[in-house]
Specification:
With 459 residues, this protein is an alpha+beta fold. Strand 12 and strand 13 form a beta hairpin. The termini are far apart.
């Protein structure tokens, strides 16, 4: 086991990793920006090193600053969390060249699956269903138009190096393809440093289902079930649950087997997530693989009785998967709400500022992962998520009732949050029945002329 681990991240995931390390009796080093000097992860770590000003590009994305901190603290491993440098193959490669273990897959695998076009081709090669689309990078608008007409509208233009919903544009006709192609390339270059895009058939009103996979260097490759991430706005997830109310046992088995096959064939090691689109006819299509831990990993932990962060650390240290993880069986139902510092009734405008009161929900089957507290100042530089509220119940009905109770009990003042919006969603008949897809939030709530108010979405 490692002696000293640096956590190359911030917020709740940094706290999460530090706690897992403590339970493994591993010393931790936090890195932080000047804006995060008072963040909880800085207080909980055994050592903390400032790596720059508030802007991510000058701190959490600055590889040389993080590696300098690693050298100063004499660490033997780095956990990247999610976001920032977690899927950066160059960072993983630099860690290895400096004899510091990167807690994640190899740089080669990150590079392979990080290029969405290559990942798609790899999945297809191993018999995983993919949507009809271009065989490679689309070089110009003329080629894009020709391909779209062959595939048939609507299509989706996607950044090859994309992620997080960026560099994506739907095209319903020739006019929207022309504008969308250039917009996608421009956003891709701005966000990922590459203008490369590809085109695939747009599956209308799909469900977004992802499978958690875990693999060690001893030949163990397993899946730990699915998570339904269809409740989202502008490709950003709002609520996740497991198991999915959509999947039949047959479809679940097919997708699980596909996930294990792909994970094994690419030589993957550590935790990862394979994401799919599922249409109303029960057809599933590979979308991408996230070569890191996911924000929504706690709901898998709750129904499987495991700690995925500990498994990441154990695997990176060369240990086999824990027996209780290898033999885990799903139990009950879990739901997660991402609590964001945003005003959902003003177009989800960011709401940074001082939190005057932070009172987290509690009670049976309730878990809160967070890095904030009363008096904490939410900085304007980073993702707006300030907490994750996770509930578990014996079945979906109990879990929904428990989440509703927990949301109503969660008190945050001084800033706006998404809590009332999520409470309203949970009351809606579409959510209760499981009859929702990735377009539901925008089409039935966010697009209403008058913003919905808490309690107004009964039905």
């Amino acid at each position: 086991m490692f002696r000293n681990v640096l956590v190359a991240n911030r917020g709740e995931i940094a706290v999460r990793v530090i706690r897992a390390c403590k339970e493994l009796n591993v010393r931790t080093v936090a890195v932080y920006s000047e804006a995060d000097a008072d963040s909880m992860h800085v207080q909980l770590a055994d050592e903390a090193i400032c790596i720059g000003p508030g802007q991510s590009a000058k701190s959490y994305l600055k590889i040389e600053n993080i590696m300098s901190a690693a050298e100063i603290a004499n660490v033997d491993a780095i956990h990247p969390g999610y976001g920032f440098l977690s899927e950066n193959p160059r960072f993983a490669e630099i860690c290895e060249s400096c004899k510091v273990k990167f807690i994640g897959p190899s740089a080669e695998v990150i590079s392979l699956m990080g290029d969405k076009n290559q990942a798609r081709a790899t999945a297809k090669k191993h018999g995983i269903p993919v949507t009809p689309g271009s065989e490679g990078i689309v070089k110009d608008e003329e080629e894009a138009m020709k391909l779209a007409e062959e595939i048939g509208f609507p299509v989706m233009i996607k950044a090859s190096a994309g992620g997080g919903g960026r560099g994506m544009r739907p095209a319903l006709n020739q006019a929207s393809l022309s504008s969308g192609f250039h917009a996608a390339r421009a956003e891709a270059e701005a966000c990922f440093g590459s203008r490369d895009v590809y085109i695939e058939k747009l599956i209308e009103n799909p469900h977004h289902i992802e499978f958690q996979v875990v693999a060690d260097r001893h030949g163990n490759v397993i899946e730990l079930g699915e998570r339904d991430c269809s409740m989202q706005r502008r490709n950003q997830k709002i609520i996740e649950e497991t198991p999915s109310p959509l999947l039949t046992d047959k479809l679940r088995k097919e997708m699980a087997e596909a996930s294990v096959t792909l994970t094994r064939e690419i030589g993957y090691e550590n935790c990862g997530t394979i994401e799919y689109l599922v249409d109303d006819d029960g057809n599933f299509y590979f979308m991408e693989m996230n070569t890191r831990i996911q924000v929504e990993h706690p709901i898998t932990e709750e129904v499987r009785g495991c700690d995925l962060i500990k498994e990441q650390i154990r695997i990176a240290a060369g240990m086999p998967l824990s027996e209780h993880v290898l033999n885990s069986e799903p139990r009950g139902h879990a739901i997660e709400c991402r609590i964001n510092a945003e005003d959902p009734y003003r177009g989800f405008a960011p709401s940074p500022g001082k939190i005057n009161l932070f009172y987290a929900s509690g009670g049976r089957g309730v878990r809160v992962d967070t890095h904030v507290y009363s008096g904490y100042e939410v900085p304007p530089y980073y993702d707006s998520m300030i907490a994750k509220l996770i509930v578990t119940g014996a079945n979906r009905e109990i879990a929904i009732a428990r989440m509703t109770r927990a949301l109503n009990e969660f008190l945050i003042s001084g800033i706006k949050t998404t809590i009332p919006f999520q409470a309203a969603i949970l009351k809606h008949g579409a959510f209760k029945s499981g009859n929702y897809n990735i377009r539901w939030v925008e089409e039935y709530i966010a697009s209403e002329p008058d913003p919905p108010k808490p309690g107004s979405l009964e039905g």
